[in-house]
Amino acid sequence: MLWRSVVGKLWFTILLLVSFVLTILMVALLQSFERFHVNEAEERLINHANMIASIYEGHEDKSEALYMINQYAQALETQIIILIEGEKIWGSDDQEAHQVSLSTLFTNETLSEVFAGEQVVRTEGDFPFVGQGEEEVQSEIMIVGVPLQPEQLNDSAVFMYQSLSTIDSATQETRQIIYFSAGIAIILTTVFAFFLSSRITAPLRKMREVALEVAQGKFKTKIPILTHDEIGQLAIAFNRMGRELNNNIHALNQEKEQLSRILVSMADGVITLDKRGNVVLTNPPAERFIQSWYYEQGSGESSADQIPEALQFLFEKVVSLEKEQVIEFDMQGRSWTILMTPLYDQHVIRGAVAVFRDMTEERRHDKLRKDFIANVSHELRTPISMLQGYSEAIIDDIAASDEEKKEMARIIYDESLRMGRLVNELLDLARMEAGHVELNIETIELAPFMERVVRKFQGFAKEQNIQLELEDERADAWIEVDPDRLDQVLTNLVHNAIRHTNEQGNVTLRVNSYDHGTKFDVSDTGTGIPEEDLPYVFERFYKADKARTRSRGGTGLGLAIAKNIVEAHDGHISVHSKLNEGTEFSFYIPKN
């Protein structure tokens, strides 16, 4: 049945809609055209009446004026009445002896207003006509009136009237044109509706067939079935397809979200490669690894087609051997362990996944642990050996004289003091690193404080034949610090600078005060620090030249203690050095 098909429903709907719109449009157009014709006729009558009034008022010879009006009226299809002082002096309808009753001109409420002054009146309606002694009513008459010399004459006006039948004929022609256009529109709408319906129904049938094919994959979506036409059949197909689609999509989204959260939250980097070795998936740590590699290669922009050579070699090895591989990779001063495992599509390798683990901290902690044990053992072995040796010498009475015994006792005492200093510094450093640093903040004047520090080392510097200088640009500056702790930091830095500077060298202590803090610089022209040792300068037991340092009595804990003291003051410390050119330690302590 046509009604049960989409074509019939669309056709009927479109046809009904177009018919409704055309009906409203026709009514509006007919009313508009009818009003237009009426207004046009009124304006035309008013123009003619004004012209006749102008002719009558413009001639002193009224007979000549009436003659010209008569000539003018013969060219018009309207009737004219001229009233002077309430009397009709001329009318174009005299020849027909069929005219509007004069009493109507005075009794009609609208027309009588023309005698009151300079006002043009117009009206439409049914008016009584007089002819051959009989009176009859003419329907649909349009009358306009124009006053004549209202300042000089009373009850004087020019009236023009005509039947509206002429307007009705024009309106009828317009109505026929509109009806004809509406009929053509209905015919075209019918053709267009059938054409559009067939164009919509065809793809719907195709979509239904495709949906039934997809339904074999067990997809699922719930659609309410409201009709039994093609759209209803499509809804049935989508219901069959959607049931499985909902479950599958839900499971895939859960797995995808779970995998995404795992990858993002992992501390290790993960990179997935396809069978061609191109990057498919990365997480933030892996992206940082690749960016570091690009920076090391000097490449400004990253490219998805490029991976580190070590990673490419490892991928080729994994694909060829079809088993996981592990390598260690050093880049930008950091150590990475890379584990790559092949990915399979059934029995064919479809790519690989690489896991990056940053082992820098583990390697560093392992090195620090080993160095700590070695350094503590190294520092304690010599004084213990000396204590043991000289004690045995005293016990075995090897020292013959009292002076020799005193000398041995002095050595034992000095070595015990050295061991005590080492243990105390280790305890202080442990407390500082644990956050148990007690600061006694005082406001001190900077210039006298720095001069005391320099005077303390002037004797030691002269013994080493080294020039020690103080540069203080703002001698009147004040600073809020723990003076004992600041003295400990400067003592460590200045003492190290003198110990590692050769004769005829210079050591400079520089102080710069700013609005937000104070900067201290200790520079020397000594042996400098190797570049590879700079990252470990502030570690415990660091010694660039352990043999030389030991001979000068250092323990390797001073810089570590100095760093913790500066950081306890919310400051920071740094070092710059070139081998055989000198070293500069700088630390900054902010105000408040």
TrEMBL record:
UniProt cross-references to PROSITE patterns, sorted A to Z: HAMP (PS50885), HIS_KIN (PS50109)
Domain HAMP: 198-250
Entries under InterPro entries matching the protein: BphY/WalK/GraS-like, HAMP_dom, HATPase_C_sf, HATPase_dom, His_kinase_dom, HisK_dim/P_dom, HisK_dim/P_sf, HisK_sensor
EC numbers, comma separated: 2.7.13.3
Stretches of the chain forming a coiled coil according to its record: none
Catalytic activity: ATP + protein L-histidine = ADP + protein N-phospho-L-histidine
Keyword check for Mitochondrion: no
GO MF terms, alphabetically ordered: ATP binding; phosphorelay response regulator activity; phosphorelay sensor kinase activity; protein kinase activator activity
Superkingdom, taxonomy of origin: Bacteria
Compartment list: Cell membrane
Residue ranges of the TM segments: 12-30, 177-196
Residue span(s) of domain Histidine kinase: 375-592
Protein name: histidine kinase
Upper classification of the organism: Bacteria, Bacillati, Bacillota, Bacilli, Bacillales
